[in-house]
Amino acid sequence: MDNAKIAAYVDSTAAMLGLPLPPERAARVVAHLQRTAAMAALLDTAPLAPHDEPAEIYSPAAFLPLNDGRSQL
Amino acid sequence: MKIIAFDAAAMATAVAAGEVSARELVDASLASIAVTNGQVNAFTETTQDRARAEADAVDAQRARGEVLGPLAGVPYAVKNLFEIKGLTTLAGSKVNQGLPAASADAMLITQMKTAGAVLVGALNMDEYAYGFTTENTHYGPCHNPHDLSRVAGGSSGGSGAAVAAGQVPVTLGSDTNGSIRVPSSLCGIWGLKPTFGRLSRRGTYPFVHSLDHLGPMASSLAGLGLAYDALQQPDPLDPGCHALRVQPVSPSLHRGTAGLRIGVLGGYFHDNAGPEARAAVALAGRTLDAQSDVTWPDAALARAAAFIITASEGGSLHLGDLRTRADDFEPLSVDRFIAGALQPVDWYLRAQRFRRVYRDKVNTLFQDWDVLLTPATPVSATVIGTEWLDINGVRQPCRAAMGLLTQPISFAGCPVVTAPMWPAGTGGLPIGVQIIAAPWREDLAFRVAQVLGDAGIAHVQPVTL
């Protein structure tokens, strides 16, 4: 991706997040993001279907075993 | 004190038999740290009073005729992201120096104490675990005991160097993308990254919640197994702890490899390994009569996804401090943290969705194989300060490239024992071989590791400092 576009993205996203970014640091961050963008482009080639869910860890509560009393309510 | 082998299993046996006291062992360990730490910079703090009190408690237990724990009197130390009651948890940072002292020990330290082990201190690491070399600007670089001009690996570099330097026979580390396996490889010691979700992470400073593992490192495979068995305990309070019961590996350690289907990974893992790393895994493969050139699915994609998730979660975790005091962060990683915090959310979500598809492919692979082998690092330890690495003609950023061979494996969550091997052409430096098993089958990786140890090709080499 075009370096200037990434630089503009870095500036505006950092501003949105309230993250001060001096120009020298911003330039280094752009270089890192440029490399990550190449990895993201690679990952874009992996076929994913709508039903492929994220692998995040989330559980609303510990699983309740049967006969936990609730069925008697 | 009688000479006891530098091995947790031998030490615990000797303490139980009354051949040596826990106090003698801890004093020897503290003396060794005092003599050699100036050279290796593995320890950032020692816990001398606590260590002597814990050792004395073990000796008193024996004097009363009580049954001792499996690690009775064994000195150990932990990466300084583990909470130690009364100490501030630095996690390799300057920022955390302002935090209050921990009010309790990490869950795994409690497990070690219950087993009779004796905590002697906290160990150097890359800041917030974001690195593979432990070139820590705040606390100084960790030096490889086999060549002090070289890195010890990271991010659990102190955990690797302390064992290799003969300071303690067991350490605990963390591994998000390779941070136990890389220093184990570069320091020439045994290391275990267990299955994701096997060991509780409660009471440790996080790096990437989706990927963080904890595990032991040791001077002997038997010691590694004893420590791992002692660390196991289901923990419903860690949302990432999925294990529901303890499954010890020590009882089956010597069961051999008859009937096991063993392969050496090719493709991505061959392409990203230097000639010495290839030689090390080839020797392991020949010793085990393994089939060569097994294809691991989507390794490059997995590394990309792991990289993106790491940057995003790590960056977000530290965003508050990055806003107000970025100059207090490690210069080698602060820009990566910031870049990670700014990543488009689509990259992150796509990586998390890919991870589930990837998991299914890896688990399918293990229907045909029991254990798979690949080097842990592309090369042996590099000189401190090295910026670029040439791997088979491809120029790579050195600090990131050290994790090329570990990242795809931990992203799947498979357990890995790293076996220390000593290929020719490295000037006497080690390279570890990853012994990879299907999720929850640490026992198989240990059995294969034992065969490599019995064959005399995987072992720890003592150093004189």
Content-based structural category of chain B: alpha+beta
Strand content of chain A: under 5%
Order of helices and strands of chain A: HH
How large is the radius of gyration of chain A?
22 Å
| Strand residue content of chain B | 15-25%
Q: Strand order of the main beta sheet of chain B, please?
A: 1-3-2-8-10-9-16-17-13-11-12
Which architecture name of chain B does CATH use?
Alpha-Beta Complex
Cα gyration radius of chain B (Å): 20 Å
Please give the number of β-strands of chain A. 0
The CATH superfamily name of chain B is Amidase signature (AS) domain
Number of separate helices of chain B: 16
The largest β sheet of chain B comes out as: 11 strands, mixed
Helix share bin of chain A: 40-55%
Low-confidence stretches of chain B: none
Low-pLDDT parts of chain A are none
Amino-to-carboxy terminus distance of chain A:
60 Å
**Protein structure class of chain A:** mainly alpha
In short:
Chain A is mainly alpha-helical and 73 residues long. Chain A has helices at 3-16, 23-43.
Can you describe what's shown?
Chain A is built from two helices and no strands. Chain A is mostly helical and 73 residues long. Chain A has a domain of 46 residues. Chain B is α+β, with helices and mostly antiparallel strands and 465 residues long. Chain B has one domain: Amidase signature (AS) domain (Amidase signature (AS) enzymes, Alpha-Beta Complex), CATH 3.90.1300.10. Chain B is built from 16 helices and 17 strands. In chain B, the strands form four sheets. Chain B has an eleven-stranded mixed beta sheet with strand order 1-3-2-8-10-9-16-17-13-11-12, with helices on both faces. A two-stranded antiparallel ribbon of chain B has the order 4-5. In chain B, α2 runs antiparallel to α3. The chains are: A mainly alpha (73), B alpha+beta (465). At the A-B interface, α1 and α2 of A face α10, α11, α12 and α13 of B.
